[in-house]
Amino acid sequence: MSDSRSPAVPGPSGSPLLDVDRITVRFGGLVAVSDLDLDVPEGTIVSLIGPNGAGKTTAFNCVSGIYAPSGGSVRFRGKRLERALTPGTILKALAVGLLTGLLFAAAAVDVDRMWMAVVKRGMITGEPFTLAGAVERLRGYFRSELAIDQMAGKWRVVSSDGADVLAIKRDLAEARLVRDALQAKVTARRIDPGTVPDPTDLGPSDEPQAAGVTLPPVKEEVLDRLAAGKSRIRFRGWSGLALGLILGTAGTLAVWQRGRRSPHVVARAGISRTFQNIRLFSNMSVLENVLVGLDRTIPGGVLAMLLRTPANVRGEAAARKKALEALGFVGLAGDANRIAGQLPYGDQRRLEIARALATGARLILLDEPAAGMNPSETADLASLIERIRDSGVTVLLIEHHMNVVMRVSDRVAVLDHGTKIAEGTPAEVRRDEKVIEAYLGGGE
User: Fold this and answer.
1) What are the backbone dihedrals phi and psi of residue 10, each rounded to the nearest 5 degrees, phi first?
2) What integer is the mean pLDDT of 134-161?
3) Is the Cβ–Cβ distance between 236 and 161 less than 8 Å?
4) Superfamily assignment of 2-85+261-440 in CATH?
């Protein structure tokens, strides 16, 4: 196992591998951890002890990304344990914002009426559906141009959204002439003296075929409303786009921020952990349980797995090799094909450690690994923890078995009611009066 690992990479000069700087964790009004300072030098075993409820596991959860600290910071190899905000992150947020903006814009301009104007009206008038025709009708919708539809066998000249009916004709050609003449009157109102005309409105306002057409009486206020319709629908569209862009981008960044210190980010940085309660897939084999921890190292994702690409096959072979090495390191190589739930309790604990080691982590957090073990299993575990350190992996340990703590630890930190009350070598901690009063002397 030790031969397969790359040499430990030290952090910046003078800095510990893990630097917990005055972290505080609050749950409402309850302060579970208060201003905890803890340095874990590379290549050492540091133990975190204290009575039940002292905040040890909460501190572990904070380091491993399960909880976000209410205050303070956690650094690993001199860097904060969180994803960096990159230009790629911002571009992805903008892309989501743009999609949201387009949806908002479609809702703002009334997508049902837009569908009617772009697709359904072309079908009503017998025009063949083409992309160019659809684009032209869409352009006409946003310019609030008058349109023609049919009802009860008669042709109607209507506003672009269909809300206003301006004329009813029996003949389609006559309806088109009326539409063109009315459109000229509406366009003329948009470019009256004193206004700044839209370039798309500048053009022939009276088409030859509209000459001599008798126009139906249309109230002035209706013509004014139709002339203002172009500005109104564009304002609604742009407003919807801007609002959706802002909300979509901000929402994406907010979700990203909440997951900035998620467990998978911490795991990718080089930290893995075990838990107080065994968390194995009891119906899977021992080997499969370790492979679960290596899934992220296999390239290609689900599609590559289904297609069995060469890169995926090589990745699976490499993961299987690492998993077997990790099982051999903890003494479970001969049980690789056994069902995990059939292993003795002590072996299940070692399997969890093997899964954590297989990820290639440089720091492993062990949360009460000796809980429930008999004295023989506890002694074997202590030897395993020492071998883990000797292989180049740093260990941060929570443990209630003082014989294990005093045997394997290079340094010991003591918590009581969320506050660190002592830190030093095992011998120094053993003699500390506060520790004797709060933990060692009081029993469990």
Assistant:
1) -70, 155
2) 79
3) no
4) P-loop containing nucleotide triphosphate hydrolases (3.40.50.300)
